[in-house]
Records
---
Amino acid sequence: MPDKYRNFINGTWVEARGGRTFRSTNPADTRDVIGEFASSVIEDVQRAVDAAHRAFPAWRGLSGSARGEYLRKAADILESRVQEVAQAMVRENGKTIGEARGETLRGVALLRFYAAEGIRSVGEVIPSVNPKTLIYTTREPLGVASIITPWNFPVAIPFWKIAPALVYGNTLVFKPASITPHCGFLVTQVSNRREFRRAC
């Protein structure tokens, strides 16, 4: 019996409405079923979007440095699981182990790069012709971002999009490619581990 994977919404793993699922199989051996994954409907998406909107004020309220610490810890967790994630990618995506390991390490590098962005200046002061006027710019988070990623780089591309969205104060809903849902599960799991929450 294949493992079952659910959606991660509002801090909890939940089944799709109606309990519908679909299977992900190994492209090199279609008899190898990786797992059954939640087949989401519009109500599931709305539930995820609503949860992201509710989480937005608290996440936005954190300093860039604090948000960067979340990404730094996620990088540490992903780095500790490079071989596991790479092997899962080989099984589901069909990459060679060397390419899969390199892509996973790219995900680690992306998380570390954007973690450092959390302490960088997010605006600038612009000279004014009026000495009593201060002109400056600052970046403001947009709100809830939708992250929809392809199958060909199922670990690196999600982190490439997720990390900057988070470090600049946005919340998000992540939808991985339908043919690499287990890789999407692993990307999501990296930011849901108990050690991650404790470290932040």
Note: The longest helix spans residues 97-117.
---
Amino acid sequence: MNPDRDLVQTVLAREKGAFERLVRDYQGLCWHIVYRMVRHPEDARELCQDVFLRVHRYLHQCRQESSLKSWIGQIAFTVALRHLERRRIPLLDPAHDEHGDNPVEQVSDGFDLEAAYADDELRRHLYAAMESLPPLQRTVLTLYHLDELTIPEIASITGLAEGTIKSHLFRSRRQLRGVLERRIGATL
């Protein structure tokens, strides 16, 4: 029994409350992706509605070999990405040379970013530092450390190669480390 497949089938069969259940189950993921990319609550709410309109319209095309979570995440990422492109907001820091830095360090799957900064004041500084990251790095970092998605799941959502995701995680953590060291003397 596959819960994703069952939910998709109940929505496609137009059972009462099925689509609302799908929205309820995945609205948090959608919000995290969209809001972390666009950072404007009004835009994010509108874009999340657009995501679920697209989910409803194209649910019959959802392939059962990938998870519903990844499929909806991919739609949310694409909608947010198009929004940024229309507004000409750079996805990465334009001053950063994407190809000039090839980190050897691998990001540990066991690293718990929030637990490392459980103290409220440190958490506030951490979230403020995260908000200073470019949209793509902020989103990848959030999906990995806060939503606890795996690198392959993030790759499925974003369409980025796993090595690129690891590189973004490395750069994001390095940038956060620098910001936190300057602000409060803390290190990651």
Note: The two ends are 42 Å apart (CA to CA).
